[in-house]
């Protein structure tokens, strides 16, 4: 494997990491506010369908993105209603949303497009096209640095740049703004906010709206930037890997980015490692690499490498009673 | 001291779930209307498909058997205060044990296959659940997250086993089929009414599992410990109940129950193991347990409802091809949402209706000297 | 009635003419069937320290939560500075200049002091500038009122006393003119409490109004100008502190003369039953809470452990009863060493003859959603008495529970009812009956009468004395000094995880006060 191979591997890692990163940041807002979100998968799936279907019908990918964000946010609001207003079980609500998305996307897909659950293929102008950074091609002739610029940094869709921009923005919001302070507080000790005269519900609703919007972008990326249509269960567990990444990153934005990139590398190298003989170990089954993010998260959770400490109030409905 | 008024038992146990299920069907009906079909036709097709014929009943009961196993699995763990969402993975891994033993013994007699594969399935399911249980008890990692992770690890592991290790020659990602002498008897062998349906002898195991769970939880000392730990871990510690032991035992029982699904589905019906054979049944178990309020009677009814939905959904695809069978998935999701996560929805309304009756018959236990 | 509700929020606090900071008129509040406050009238003069005293459950905290906008009253009027107001929520109360320091601090543990103080009163969207502003303000407040705390310290690293200062600073930072403190000394040592009182006096002298909620008469006498007494959700009366005595207040609190003494004969101590030797216990985060403690309890005597809450009594109880393995040291029952292995040592300790009435019945002693009979076998569930082998005999268990209901006069008399709906006193009786109605050698009992009505208190005290007279050893842990002195034959005082000294139950107030602050009176201070 030479430098070019590595750069190409990293390039595909970045592409694979983007939906994880967006969903992971989405989960970060929700969980920092004290609400467990195992429905990231479903929201992404619903959004992916909405984006592809809308783009196919209207021919406008931006409308697709808008629809994706709307659908995902709507689902997030169902979660909010169950978790905040009805003080329901947040895990059950998440499970239900995952099923709901799996059912509705195929149900409507079948009924509307009659292609066995997939949406029509999008033409290039109905998708998010790649953006070439200035002088990418010229600069690409320079070995290594130029290749990095051309292959790794340039030539991605706008959503990729958005995702990586969302990392510093999230870090700033979380640690340097009033909203971030309150968000962190409500996930740790909601009563502290309530007694200081702030609305716990309002803050959690705000957080879940952001979660919905970001999941919407993640879903739109899958079906209109990375892919060119929606197919049944196209998220295939990405929402759960994002959840694993969130825990692995200990609910912090920069760590979330690195973890998602790591998981991206793992998934990009699956194909390349097939049949490769490692010294001492021999051939590593693809399935093992597939399972690695989950195994790593279990190991981390078990406290064998550091400790993942969740926001203290997570998962408990806030009850203003004695 | 809750601001909520307690409701009569029958309202919380019967009326509220019924209303929630009704609402789920109404919204499902709206989805049908949305694609321009007649909701009543669709609902009738669902109902007739599930209960209209002996074959329909057979399928419904067969699916219900699966749901009884995975539902009880969730319920037992839940009584111990744990949320096992790993039924899916536990049933999947149990399939490996069940099929290996079944294929090993399939030239002998079906009784040996039944007993052998049942034991193997329970052991494998239990093992896959014990690890998250142990991690929760000893290392404090939350069982919800760990079991989610274990579902995916199971999926990768089983993918590897089925593609590379126990693959039938010439096949892709599945084992060979169980030979004739080892196949479990179908109910249709004894009762003509169930002809052409997959309902098999494992159904009786489902009934036994329901009775077993009832006795375990409410009529044994272990069940008492499980309930104490689930309701108040501090009180369990005070009472000298070992949380580590109870968590691990409860998870083992939970996993073993989930594992039984492999006998019904993989050994009994498919007669081989294929990739992804569990197909969401483990997750439906969550809904069944919640709707059934973790009580065997409730679970039996809820399993029947979901069994009917599954079977009705298949028939729907034939009767009304324009209505995709995923309608069932939607209704199922809504039932989970309404009964499990929004159970409080109808509470205020029902409170208003039934509040008067409560005031008329105040519980003598309530006193005015509460702690303020 | 002067209708001026809308403008009241904007009124500067001192512009109004009234000499009253707070006027409550006929305020009522019910939680379900429980009437927590009933037609309460209360007047609080500006620039005064006003005490509100009452037993647990008298409705003090509820009343103050209404004033702070945390609950809304069902009926009645609230006047602040002579203006009729309708307090919508806590932020509205803060606007009106009412601040509250809650009994359980409302702080975010992993935030700094500064972050906690600005939370909800940040002012600007960006934190950096609001933090800078808050830091200046904090320095000023610290100087004015003698409230020193490091603004950059994490809350989890602070002592309880310091956390309380943060809470006070939080209220002052928000411009509170009326400061409500709910049971502020429950977690403080006498010394820390005295420091708090000095701060409160300084605040009053600077023009603030203080409302102090407590059930401790000593504090009322020490620091307040006026005192109001509440009983069972009603206001009994308001008096100038100088014109009253602890005896009169106590009578007003409970509605009749209190039995200060429990009738009992001198103890006839026998052999040592419970022996604790060089015991050290750490809490879940590794902080030492019990430090090298040694003592013993003999048959036929009651040994009391006195001390301010949070000085290691809970950890001591947990170790002795087998709930927590000690770091070092031994516990022996009848000379037999307790082996702490696994997480079920409590069961082994029970078999050795120790019965344990835990200090928090709702957290430990009961599973409230269980029916009474199920709670009646908690801890003894493995006994053959309740079914053979692995099976549980519901019939036998219910029969046993019915017997105890009779013996201890537990109401309601139905073992099939959920204990959650029982009154505090009856819940405690369920626990006591379970622990006493068995073969036992030593009873370990924590806070036996917390949150229990007067009638049940007398009954429970009598049961404990009776047990002693039967020749059993009793270890009594309580933060109620009166209870310790009334029941015990010997008193050990605990401070900061150590046994400071042993006192006779009739030792002087001064000796108890000193030792509870960590000073051995015998060595002289």
From TrEMBL, chain A:
GO cellular component annotations of the record: plasma membrane
Membrane topology: Multi-pass membrane protein
Subcellular location(s) of the protein: Cell membrane
InterPro entries: ABC_transp_permease (IPR001851)
Chief place where the protein resides: membrane
Keywords recorded for this protein, A-Z: Cell membrane, Membrane, Sugar transport, Transmembrane, Transmembrane helix, Transport
TM stretches of this protein: 6-28, 91-113, 158-175, 205-224, 285-305
Gene Ontology MF, one: transmembrane transporter activity
Highest taxon, organism lineage: Bacteria
PANTHER family attached to this UniProt entry: GUANOSINE ABC TRANSPORTER PERMEASE PROTEIN NUPQ, SUGAR ABC TRANSPORTER INTEGRAL MEMBRANE PROTEIN-RELATED
The protein's name: Simple sugar transport system permease protein
Record organism: Maritalea mobilis
TrEMBL record, chain B:
Protein name per the record: Simple sugar transport system permease protein
Topology of the protein relative to the lipid bilayer: Multi-pass membrane protein
Keywords, alphabetical: Cell membrane, Membrane, Sugar transport, Transmembrane, Transmembrane helix, Transport
Source domain of life: Bacteria
CC annotations in GO: plasma membrane
Subcellular location: Cell membrane
Gene Ontology molecular function terms on file: transmembrane transporter activity
Organism whose genome encodes this protein: Maritalea mobilis
One family name in Pfam for this protein: BPD_transp_2
Segments traversing the membrane: 12-35, 55-77, 89-105, 111-131, 143-163, 196-217, 238-261, 273-290, 297-313, 325-346
Chief location bin: membrane
Automatic annotation (TrEMBL), chain C:
Keywords from the named record: ATP-binding, Cell membrane, Membrane, Nucleotide-binding, Repeat, Sugar transport, Translocase, Transport
Ribonucleoprotein is among the record's keywords: no
Subcellular location: Cell membrane
Ranges where the ABC transporter domain occurs: 22-257, 274-521
GO CC list: plasma membrane
Molecular function in Gene Ontology: ATP binding; ATP hydrolysis activity
Keyword Membrane: yes
Main location class: membrane
UniProt-listed Pfam families: ABC_tran (PF00005)
Topology term for the membrane: Peripheral membrane protein
Matching SUPFAM superfamilies: P-loop containing nucleoside triphosphate hydrolases
Superkingdom of source: Bacteria
Similarity comment: Belongs to the ABC transporter superfamily.
Entry protein name: Simple sugar transport system ATP-binding protein
Organism listed in the record: Maritalea mobilis
Organism ancestry: Bacteria, Pseudomonadati, Pseudomonadota, Alphaproteobacteria, Hyphomicrobiales
């Amino acid at each position: 494997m030479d430098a070019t191979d590595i750069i190409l591997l990293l390039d595909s890692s970045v592409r694979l990491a983007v939906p994880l990163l967006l969903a992971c940041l989405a989960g970060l807002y929700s969980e920092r506010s004290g609400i467990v979100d195992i429905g990231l998968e479903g929201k992404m799936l619903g959004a992916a369908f909405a984006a592809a279907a809308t783009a196919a019908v209207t021919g406008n990918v931006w409308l697709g993105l808008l629809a994706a964000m709307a659908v995902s946010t709507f689902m997030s609001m169902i979660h909010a209603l169950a978790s905040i207003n009805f003080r329901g079980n947040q895990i059950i609500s998440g499970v239900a949303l995952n099923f709901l998305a799996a059912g509705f996307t195929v149900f409507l897909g079948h009924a509307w497009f009659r292609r066995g659950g997939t949406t029509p293929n999008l033409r290039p102008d109905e998708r998010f096209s790649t953006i070439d950074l200035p002088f990418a091609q010229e600069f690409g002739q320079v070995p290594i640095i130029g290749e990095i610029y051309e292959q790794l940094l340039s030539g991605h869709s706008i959503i990729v740049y958005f995702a990586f921009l969302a990392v510093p923005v999230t870090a700033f919001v979380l640690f340097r703004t009033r909203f971030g302070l309150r968000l962190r507080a409500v996930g740790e000790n909601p009563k502290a906010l309530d007694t200081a005269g702030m609305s716990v519900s309002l803050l959690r609703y705000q957080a879940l709206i952001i979660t919905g919007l970001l999941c919407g972008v993640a879903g739109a990326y899958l079906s209109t930037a990375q892919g060119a249509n929606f197919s049944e269960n196209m998220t295939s567990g990405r929402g759960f890997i994002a959840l694993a990444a969130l825990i692995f990153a200990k609910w912090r934005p920069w760590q979330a980015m690195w973890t998602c990139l790591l998981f991206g590398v793992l998934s990009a190298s699956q194909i390349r490692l097939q049949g490769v003989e490692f010294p001492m170990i021999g051939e590593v089954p693809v399935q093992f690499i597939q399972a690695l993010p989950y195994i790593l998260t279990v190991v981390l959770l078990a406290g064998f490498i550091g400790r993942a400490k969740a926001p203290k109030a997570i998962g408990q409905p806030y009850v203003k009673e004695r | 001291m809750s601001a909520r008024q307690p409701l009569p038992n029958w309202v919380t146990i019967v009326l509220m779930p019924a209303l929630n299920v009704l609402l789920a069907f109404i919204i499902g009906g709206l989805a049908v209307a949305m694609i321009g079909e007649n909701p009543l036709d669709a609902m009738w097709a669902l109902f007739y498909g599930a209960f209209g014929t002996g074959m329909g009943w057979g399928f419904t009961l067969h699916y219900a058997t699966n749901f009884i196993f995975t539902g009880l699995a969730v319920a037992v763990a839940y009584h111990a205060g744990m949320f096992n969402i790993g039924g899916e993975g536990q049933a999947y891994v149990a399939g490996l044990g069940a099929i290996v033993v079944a294929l090993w013994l399939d030239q002998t007699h079906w009784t040996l296959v039944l007993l052998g594969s049942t034991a193997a399935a329970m052991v494998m399911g239990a093992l896959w659940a014990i690890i998250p249980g142990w991690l929760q008890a000893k290392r404090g990692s939350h069982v919800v997250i760990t079991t989610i992770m274990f579902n995916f690890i199971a999926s990768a592991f089983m993918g590897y086993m089925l593609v590379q290790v126990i693959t039938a020659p010439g096949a892709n990602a599945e084992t060979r089929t169980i030979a004739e002498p080892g196949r479990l008897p179908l109910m249709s062998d004894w009762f003509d009414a169930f002809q052409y349906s997959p309902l098999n002898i494992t159904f009786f195991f489902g009934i036994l599992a329901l009775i077993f769970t009832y006795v375990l939880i409410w009529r044994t000392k272990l069940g008492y410990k499980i309930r104490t730990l689930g309701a108040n871990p501090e009180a369990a510690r005070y009472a000298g109940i070992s949380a580590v032991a109870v968590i691990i035992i409860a998870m083992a029982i939970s996993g073993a129950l989930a594992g039984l699904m492999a006998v019904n589905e993989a050994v009994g019906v498919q007669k081989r193991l294929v990739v992804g054979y569990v197909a969401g049944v483990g997750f439906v178990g969550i809904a069944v347990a919640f709707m059934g309020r973790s009580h065997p009677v409730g679970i039996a009814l809820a399993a029947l409802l979901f069994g009917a939905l599954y079977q009705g959904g298949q028939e729907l695809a034939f009767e009304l091809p324009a209505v995709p069978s995923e309608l069932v998935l939607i209704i199922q999701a809504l039932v989970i949402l309404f009964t499990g996560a929004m159970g409080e929805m109808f509470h205020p309304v029902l409170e208003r209706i039934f509040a008067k009756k409560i005031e008329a018959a105040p519980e003598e236990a309530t006193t005015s000297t509460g702690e303020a | 009635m002067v209708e001026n509700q809308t403008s009241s929020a904007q009124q500067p606090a001192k512009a109004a003419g009234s000499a009253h900071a707070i006027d409550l008129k006929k305020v009522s509040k019910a939680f379900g069937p429980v009437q927590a406050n009933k037609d309460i009238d209360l007047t609080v003069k500006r620039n005064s320290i006003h005490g509100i005293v009452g037993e647990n459950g008298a409705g003090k905290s509820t009343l103050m939560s209404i004033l702070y906008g945390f609950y809304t009253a069902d009926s009645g009027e609230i006047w602040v500075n002579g203006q009729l107001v309708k307090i919508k929520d806590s932020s509205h109360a803060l606007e009106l200049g009412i601040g509250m320091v809650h009994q359980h601090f409302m702080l975010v543990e992993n935030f700094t002091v500064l972050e906690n103080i600005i939370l909800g009163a940040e002012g600007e969207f960006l934190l950096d500038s609001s933090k800078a502003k808050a830091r200046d303000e904090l320095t000023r407040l610290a100087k004015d009122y003698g409230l020193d705390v490091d603004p950059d310290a994490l809350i989890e690293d602070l002592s309880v006393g310091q956390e309380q200062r943060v809470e006070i600073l939080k209220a002052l930072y928000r411009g509170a003119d009326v400061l409500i403190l709910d049971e502020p000394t429950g977690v403080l040592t006498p010394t820390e409490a005295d420091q708090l009182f000095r701060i409160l006096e300084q605040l009053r002298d600077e023009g603030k109004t203080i409302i102090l909620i407590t059930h401790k008469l000593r504090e009322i006498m020490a620091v307040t100008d006026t005192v109001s007494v509440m009983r069972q959700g009603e206001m009994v009366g308001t008096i100038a502190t100088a014109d009253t005595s602890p005896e009169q207040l106590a009578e007003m609190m409970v509605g009749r003369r209190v039995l200060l003494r429990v009738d009992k004969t001198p103890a006839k101590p026998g052999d040592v039953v419970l022996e604790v030797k060089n015991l050290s216990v750490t809490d879940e985060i590794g902080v030492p809470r019990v430090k090298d403690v040694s003592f013993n309890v003999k048959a036929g005597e009651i040994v009391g452990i006195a001390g301010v809450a949070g000085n290691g009594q809970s950890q001591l109880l947990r170790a002795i009863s087998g709930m927590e393995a000690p770091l070092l040291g031994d516990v022996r029952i009848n000379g037999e060493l307790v082996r702490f292995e696994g997480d079920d040592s409590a069961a082994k300790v029970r078999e050795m003859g120790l019965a344990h009435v835990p200090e928090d019945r709702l957290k430990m002693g009961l599973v409230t959603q269980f029916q009474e009979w199920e709670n009646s076998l908690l801890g003894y569930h493995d006994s053959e008495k309740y079914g053979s082998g692995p099976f549980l005999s519901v019939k036998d268990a219910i029969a046993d529970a019915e017997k105890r209901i009779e013996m201890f006069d537990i109401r309601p008399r139905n073992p099939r009812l959920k204990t959650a709906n029982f009154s505090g006193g009856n819940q405690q009786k369920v626990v006591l009956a379970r622990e006493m109605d068995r073969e036992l050698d030593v009873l370990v009992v924590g806070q036996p009468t917390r949150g229990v009505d007067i009638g049940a208190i007398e009954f429970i005290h009598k049961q404990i004395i009776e047990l002693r007279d039967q020749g059993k050893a009793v270890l009594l842990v309580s933060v109620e000094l009166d209870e310790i002195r009334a029941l015990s034959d010997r008193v050990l005082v605990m401070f900061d995880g150590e046994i400071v000294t042993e006192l006779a139950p009739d030792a002087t107030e001064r000796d108890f006060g000193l030792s509870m602050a960590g000073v051995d009176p015998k060595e002289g201070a």
